[in-house]
From TrEMBL, chains A, B, C, D:
Gene3D superfamilies assigned to the protein according to its UniProt record, in alphabetical order: Homeodomain-like, Tetracycline Repressor, domain 2
Species of the source: Diplocloster modestus
The protein's name: TetR/AcrR family transcriptional regulator
UniProt xrefs under PANTHER family: ACREF/ENVCD OPERON REPRESSOR-RELATED, ACREF_ENVCD OPERON REPRESSOR-RELATED
Keyword entries, A-Z: DNA-binding
Residue ranges of every copy of the HTH tetR-type domain listed in the record: 4-65
Coiled coil: none
Amino acid sequence: MEVSAKKIALFDAVIALIEDGVDINTLKVSDITNRAGIGKGTAYEYFRSKEEIIIQALFYDVGQRIEKIRRLLRQYTNTKDRIHAVFQWIETDARQKSSFTQLFRMANGSFEFSNSLKEEMARQEGYCKEINDILTAFVEAGVAEGVFRREISPVLQRTALLSQIMSFMIYFHQEDISEAVTVEEMKDFLYENIMRMLG
Amino acid sequence: MEVSAKKIALFDAVIALIEDGVDINTLKVSDITNRAGIGKGTAYEYFRSKEEIIIQALFYDVGQRIEKIRRLLRQYTNTKDRIHAVFQWIETDARQKSSFTQLFRMANGSFEFSNSLKEEMARQEGYCKEINDILTAFVEAGVAEGVFRREISPVLQRTALLSQIMSFMIYFHQEDISEAVTVEEMKDFLYENIMRMLG
Amino acid sequence: MEVSAKKIALFDAVIALIEDGVDINTLKVSDITNRAGIGKGTAYEYFRSKEEIIIQALFYDVGQRIEKIRRLLRQYTNTKDRIHAVFQWIETDARQKSSFTQLFRMANGSFEFSNSLKEEMARQEGYCKEINDILTAFVEAGVAEGVFRREISPVLQRTALLSQIMSFMIYFHQEDISEAVTVEEMKDFLYENIMRMLG
Amino acid sequence: MEVSAKKIALFDAVIALIEDGVDINTLKVSDITNRAGIGKGTAYEYFRSKEEIIIQALFYDVGQRIEKIRRLLRQYTNTKDRIHAVFQWIETDARQKSSFTQLFRMANGSFEFSNSLKEEMARQEGYCKEINDILTAFVEAGVAEGVFRREISPVLQRTALLSQIMSFMIYFHQEDISEAVTVEEMKDFLYENIMRMLG
DNA sequence: CATGAATGAGGGTTCATTCAT
DNA sequence: CATGAATGAACCCTCATTCAT
């Protein structure tokens, strides 16, 4: 799974462009290669098509983010800290509108891409599964710790947990957080919700 | 806000195409007009660009759906019935992958469209706001009814409510609902969650 | 087999370009459409690819030439006149380097084109066959007339006849007809050859 | 006229590719260098462009073939044997569709190559001329031997000779030699034709 | 109004050529 | 010398938009 420097440069360019708010569907190859500081033709030494570049860039990015959250979660020994770690991660990492969008889309499979590339996604050993794995581990630890009720089905537990995580994402994603709810208030509320649902 | 028959025909064509699973980004004008049974040039008598057609079609569709859920909610006098009515609506109306995707995207503003058309969206008096209004009315009724705690901030109440609605959408949206959780179990669990969080 | 005016315009453009000495392999779509006096995109309303345009243009041209020689031959009642008619036709019609080349290639199947289009050629009911038919009719008439020996195999008769026709083509095709042989001398020699071989 | 090993390797690669049926117009530099087993850049140490490589490769190949037929002809002391030697050479050497095609094209100058390289061809001291030389020597020997009539113009004699040689080439080149004419019958017929025309 | 034939700007992709190693 | 990674000019094709009928 070694990835060449040029590939990384292209991935980073795609991510940077997306973070800049460029629509993923209007991305031009020249935009990407210019941003990556390489020639247009060079991209085709490493990828067979524009779509391949973009898809793989997204997977690369999501993979990195997942790895980060995994490492993060390993540092904490109790559920409360882990929940707040996730919130913290969202605040710092998933805050950007664009990358959040991508991750979110992955989470519910609503990627809009040429059908021919949906196969590619299938081949990629689904990050959805990875997210699910993380949630599963999260919930199991909570049960083992005794803070989550054992009798609730794991699926339901994951659903409940994810619902509050998504709520926090949407909170950050909203254009105008006009009505006065501070980040801390929101975090407390969502944490309490999780405990009410699963505790 | 009178809308001509030709416009409706084009809107319906766009919606039908999306429901058929056609990627919104690869929609061609000729696809739309063919489906609508009118000439390609005719579309430009009513709209200034392809994007205008699609955007307005989506708004038209979401508007209809929102109107439907509004009428539906008016039929019920208590919160419990209203919550189940929403679940029922998701089961019947928002089940299709595509239309759900559109609505969902609208709900969190993650439309991916050429920036030039984001203004158009802004001009459209945000359906997000309408969704928010519905949630607000929902929550207020719950408080008036005495089943939701008055001391929770309305923003938080809406957040909690939406989180469980989204969970139900995702439940239907998942490709493989492999693990055995029946629809009824899920609905009960989500309803209980709402009551635990807000009751 | 009705052919639209636009198609004809494109065919004529291709032929004209070839007659001008443009290499068939370096022909650009824009060259063709410019010459035809139509927009680049228009070509794709009538053909699916550049190769399709060129291939069909060549077949169209060869078809016309064959039709012409056919009509021509029908006007004459004896073999001698027919042979000279063919020479005459070569002098006026097949003189151009390029069109000769095309015809010639067809005659021996040495078209160099993307393999994917060889099928197209196959579908076209071989003009090679048509050329063969003309030769066959030619020879049969000669036999009936009593100027060609009946005992020679038709294949051999056609071979002999074609060899002298080709010789005349090559005579015109040569860059420098340095050594003094007049057209009339050549025609007489070739005619005599045919009679010596087949008479 | 010393030719380096690398050049030969490239020439051989081009020839091999052509014999494999690859279209000369779609030949890529990388195809050639890969086949030759050398680096892509190396080709440009010896040639200034792709076309130069291919053109020179073709000349190299034709030169070799001509040399071979020359040696072959020197072995025979009478015209009849020489004619059959040529037929034999066509059967063994010029049988392949591709190399035949190249040679044939050379013979009538119908090379399709970017005009810029036609000059290159001119500079190459025309192999057409060499072929012509061979034909001239052939005819002169026939006259000296007394089997060809002295009063026929050398140009005409060469024309007649070449016409039957070409006929034999076309005979082998035809896809389907469906109609029953054996190689021997054809050779006899063509030999007789030559004698009837020139004897 | 309605149409669809015509258009050409735009962008993905290829591949001959270069040049730093 | 030899290499092959990098390059970008070139070109095919798509499709949103226009406009004559």
